[in-house]
Amino acid sequence: MRLGALIALILIFAFPGTAVAAPAPPVTARVAYLVDDATGTVHYHKRESRRVPVASLTKVMTAYVVRREAGLDDVIRITQADVRHASANGATAGGLRAGERLTVRALLYALLLNSGADASHALAERYGPGTRRFVAKMNAAAHRLDLRDTRFANPDGLPATGAFSSARDQVALARAAMKDRVIATIARTKQHTVAGHTWRNTNELLGHGVIGLKTGYTRAAGYCLSFVATKYGRTYVGVVLGEPTEANRYASARRMLGWAVAHTP
Questions:
Q1: pTM for the complete prediction?
Q2: Structure confidence at residue 265 (pLDDT)
Q3: CA-CA distances (angstroms) from residue 95 to 47, 70, 111, 188, 211?
Q4: Number of domains within the chain
Q5: Is residue 52 part of a domain?
Q6: Range of the structural domain that residue 141 is part of
Q7: 214 appears as a binding residue in the annotation
Q8: Which of 26, 33, 76, 198 has a Cα-to-Cα distance from 2 of 20 to 30 A?
C-alpha cells in the first residue's frame, strides 16, 4: 500500500468523520501546471517555475507576435531559405514550396497545426524584418506579459543556447494567446486545406472539450503540450513539459484535467 493511502486510512479510523483530500494525480512530466482561466485558481503544479526548453511551444509566441504585426491577408512569398531552414535542421515542416505565395492566415495554420518551421521562418523574416529582430519582438512581448522565466532565441523552438521557459510562463502565454480569436480558432481546428496544402493538427487531445493549443518535441525538451479545455462551463489551461513519451504527455494532461474538474466547486 502506498504511503499516502496508508496515512489517509489511519486518519479516517483515528478521527471518524475527518475529510481527507485525495492525492494529486501522477504526472510523469518534469514540470507541469494547470489553472482555471477565469479565476486563476491553481489546480496542479509541479516545479512550475523551473526553466526548461519548451520546443515548438515557442511557436505560440511566434503566432502571438505575428497577430500584432501583420494583416491576415498579407501575402508572403516563400523563399528557398525558408524551406531549407526546416530541412537543414531536421525540423517539422509545413511542406511549403519556394516561390509560392501564401497569406499570413494560411501560414498561421501551417505554424500551429503542422508546427511548420518553414512557416515560422517565413513569418519571422517578414515581420522582424529578419529573424534576429523578430526574436527581439518575441522577448519584448514576453516582458510585457511578465513572463519572468522565459527567453526566446528563435521563432520555432529548435535547440538553442539561452532559450528557456517555465510551465507557469507557458500557461500565462497560452491564456493570452487564446484571447486572440484567430489563434483560438486555428488551435481547435483538426485539419485545414489551402493552396494545395493540407495541414493536420498534431494535438491528439482535441475534442471532448479540448480546444487547443500546441505540441512540441526535441530531445532536450522531451514531449511537451500546452492544452486548453472547456468542461462544465469552466476553461482550464495547462502545460506539461519534459514528458518521456508522446503517450505520456496526453495521459498526464487527461489526469490533470480530470483532477481539476473533480475538485472544482
A1: 0.90
A2: 81
A3: 37, 22, 11, 21, 25
A4: 1
A5: yes
A6: 25-262
A7: yes
A8: 33
